[in-house]
Amino acid sequence: MNISSEFSKHALEYGSYNIIQNIVIEKLLLHVESKPKKILDIGCGSGALLSAIDWDYEFFCGVDFAKGMLELHPKSPKIELLYTDFNKDELFDNMLTCSFDFVFSASALQWADDLERIFSKIKGLKAPIALAIFTAGTFKSINETASISSILKSANEIKELQEKYFDANFEVQNYKLEFESTRDIFKYIKKSGVSGSRKVLNYKESKKLLRDYPLNYLEFEVAFIYTSKR
Ligand SMILES: C[S@@+](CC[C@H](N)C(=O)[O-])C[C@H]1O[C@@H](n2cnc3c(N)ncnc32)[C@H](O)[C@@H]1O
């Protein structure tokens, strides 16, 4: 199963498993003062960012490769939804014909095949940005308990790329989400769409992890990259 189908599969239940993603969106929006009119949202999902926007915009373009998510996204004549993979160069080449006055991406670019290439493409759009990217610090203790290394980039790796491509602020935030039981923790990972689906544990190893995980919370680490308020 690839990442896209995991997000789709859980799209309907996504509303109750997106606590951290909603906190991330709230924080991203704090860095936007300009009330942009033409907005691009890369990895828009079911529209949480759009739903949190409280100003009048002219045009909103959301990009996502999970059909199930796009089906849940709010629709209107001002909203264009592109069902496509943000790893494709054609997407950004086509975007050059639109002129966006803000580019958002919330909790999605950790799945970029090549983050550096996407950063260079976003830079080419010449618009202010607010990006939130989950880092390797996410699920840190689970990964340590299972002796696996994260498939995500570290905060430092993301920072290096940010410095190369954007004159922007860089901030790392850590979040903890508490659960009643270890079983609930694993259910959350499966359903939140944060884990991706590159399975590294077999059934027996997963059982062992369920038994050995010492915490009653999950850790999330998110890198925020945002253009300074003017
Ligand atoms: C954790 S969800 C976040 C959704 C939304 N931005 C939010 O904050 O609620 C990540 C989204 O990125 C999308 N995504 C992941 N990889 C993608 C890719 N290569 N191309 C397009 N969308 C992608 C997924 O389908 C999913 O909707």
TrEMBL record:
- Domain of life the protein comes from: Bacteria
Question: Which keywords belong to this entry?
Answer: Transferase
The record ties this protein, via SUPFAM superfamilies, to: S-adenosyl-L-methionine-dependent methyltransferases
Q: Which GO terms describe its molecular function?
A: S-adenosylmethionine-dependent methyltransferase activity
Which residues are in the Methyltransferase type domain?
40-125
CDD domains xrefs: AdoMet_MTases
- Which InterPro entries does the protein's record reference? Methyltransf_11, SAM-dependent_MTases_sf
Official protein name in the record: Putative methyl transferase
